[in-house]
Amino acid sequence: MDYPELALHIAGRWRTQTQGGRRAVIDPATEETIAHLPLAGREELAEAAEAARRGFIQWRAKSALERCNILRAAAQKIREQAKTIAQVLTLEQGKPLAESVREVTLSADIVDFQAEEAKRLYGRLVPPRVEGILSQAVVRRPVGPVAAFTPWNFPANLPARKLASALAAGCSVVIKPAEETPGTCMLLVRAFLDAGVPPEALNMVCGDPAEVSSFLIDHPAIAKVSFTGSVAVGKLLGEQAARHVKRFTGELGGHAPVIVCEDADFSFALKSSIAAKFRNAGQVCASPIRFYIPRSRFGEWSEAFVQAARALRMGPGTDAATQMGPLAHARRIEDMQRFVDDAVERGAQLLCGGQRAQRPGYFFEPTVIANAPPDSRVMRQEPFGPIAVLQPYDTLDEAIDSANALPYGLGAYAFTRDLHTAHRLGEALEAGMVGINHFGVSQPEMPFGGWKESGIGQEMGAEGLLHYTEVKTLTVGVPA
Ligand SMILES: NC(=O)C1=CN([C@@H]2O[C@H](COP(=O)(O)OP(=O)(O)OC[C@H]3O[C@@H](n4cnc5c(N)ncnc54)[C@H](O)[C@@H]3O)[C@@H](O)[C@H]2O)C=CC1
Ligand SMILES: O=Cc1ccc(S(=O)(=O)O)cc1
Q: Which residues form the Aldehyde dehydrogenase domain (predicted)?
């Protein structure tokens, strides 16, 4: 499989030679270097921000229909190249190739949806309360150049969400993908440019994440910051944006509970749970983490869950038989071990896995922990990896309280066959996305965002576009 030569897109030019040096991009399945990524220096970051300022003026001047047509052409190009982009994604990130193909085609769908929404960015006319007013309108206008920061777990989907909405609204962008997975984003950026987005309206930079984000957020050309990543970094970037009163969207971490009710179809719930838990090796912000199981059926569930976890085929994403790939980078392995060791030290039971796999690559065994005390790290922080925690409960009220106990609220799930219980849980679970009897809460047409510390704002759906706009009250009086 081929991996492309990496370049940054700054002020209308692709650059392979940059002032910030370069860093290796590693295949997480083999730990081998597959490419070198040029890094931007401060002057190049300034060039990108200034270009975004000029690009914004050109891009916002296009009609909604023109923007829609260009973005739909970009979506088509992404779809046509889905296999190639997916191969790059799997090489740099590790997930199974079939998952990468699905991610890339879904990214094209996200771009299509936001492109169409550009034509529906309606305002409204409000009857004036005083005489002599011809029209009193509420309209939405693009917020301005956006600095977008995306992580390594969904190298196509997450840049697509930000690029699609920002560009559909008429904003220009400087995007910084994760340095671990830059190739996928580079191919998406190329598709947008080839489709007709003005070269200065779309910039891609990489570098030291903290230096790049700090520089861009402080830069006067940047009007809005959009970040996907950890709660801790989200708070830092949000604070920095707030100091300039710049707009901020944060898609941050979660700690999703799953309540399996006494009346649930256990075999369906278990099959769905295993697929959702170990998809992308658990590196999904809305991934299920805490499974609350009725005490009377805890033994039966634990046994079947462990058996299914052990049966998962781990391997390189390029192997068609692989069900779970490696973790995306070396730091994740160390972090998984800390989660497991801490839980066991505090008295939890390790039912399976719990260690790095004995093979090259950043593989960590599918891990199941039971009865983790509430103060264990795995019960308070997002493991962001292939670790499931099984907890017994006695009453549904108790399970709901436990599910809502953390300061996060991104995804939450439940399984029941009773319609009343389904509605009750749908209301009671405190999260931006609640899935009853299914985990598919991330869809291009639906808003995706967190409650509590899990984030601010939403991406995708009609709401996603609105976060890239400002509201203007526009009153036109009768000329004197
Ligand atoms: N919500 C999500 O989709 C993601 C959440 N995370 C969370 O982050 C935790 C740690 O992930 P790691 O990669 O090990 O650590 P990390 O915190 O170094 O990096 C996480 C992501 O944030 C970016 N980042 C870090 N500091 C930044 C800064 N100052 N400015 C801009 N971007 C910055 C990195 O480039 C990377 O893409 C995970 O355990 C998980 O909880 C990580 C990736 C995606
Ligand atoms: O990490 C967040 C995230 C990204 C993508 C998806 S999905 O592939 O659209 O399901 C879910 C969560």
A: 14-473
Q: Cα–Cα distance between 72 and 286 in angstroms, integer?
A: 28
State mean pLDDT over 210-220: 98
Strands (E), 6-132: 8-10, 13-15, 22-27, 32-38, 124-125
Q: Which residues line ligand 2 (CB under 6 A)?
A: 103, 106, 153-154, 157, 284-286, 442
- Of the chain, the end-to-end C-alpha distance in Å amounts to 70
Q: Torsion-angle region of residue 156: left (phi > 0), alpha (psi -120 to 50) or beta?
A: alpha
397/388 Cα distance (integer angstroms): 22
C-alpha 418 – ligand 1 centre gap (Å): 39
Domain with CATH 3.40.605.10 in the chain: 8-252+454-474
Work out the average pLDDT over 222-245. Answer: 98
Mean pLDDT, to the nearest integer, of 405-410?
98
The pLDDT of 345-373, averaged and rounded, is: 98
Would you state the CATH architecture of domain 256-443? Answer: 3-Layer(aba) Sandwich (3.40)
pLDDT digits (tens, 9 = 90+) for 51-64: 999 999 999 999 99
Q: State the closest ligand 2 atom to the C-alpha of 153, by its place in the atom list counted from 1.
A: 1
Ligand 2 pocket, mutate which of 157, 280, 410 (most atoms under 8 A from CB): 157
pLDDT band at residue 1 using 50, 70 and 90 as cut-offs:
confident
Q: Confirm if 33 and 180 have CB atoms less than 8 A apart.
A: no
CATH of domain 8-252+454-474: 3.40.605.10
Which ligand is closest to the CA of 253, given by its number?
Answer: 1
Distance CA 298, CA 301 (A): 5
Q: Averaged over 304-314, what is the pLDDT?
A: 98
pLDDT single digits (tens) 193-203: 999 999 999 99
Active site residues: 251, 285
Considering the chain, tell me which residue range(s) the CATH 3.40.309.10 domain(s) occupy: 256-443
Determine the average pLDDT of the residues in 240-256: 98
Q: pTM for the whole thing?
A: 0.98
- Ligand 1 within 6 A of CB of 157: no
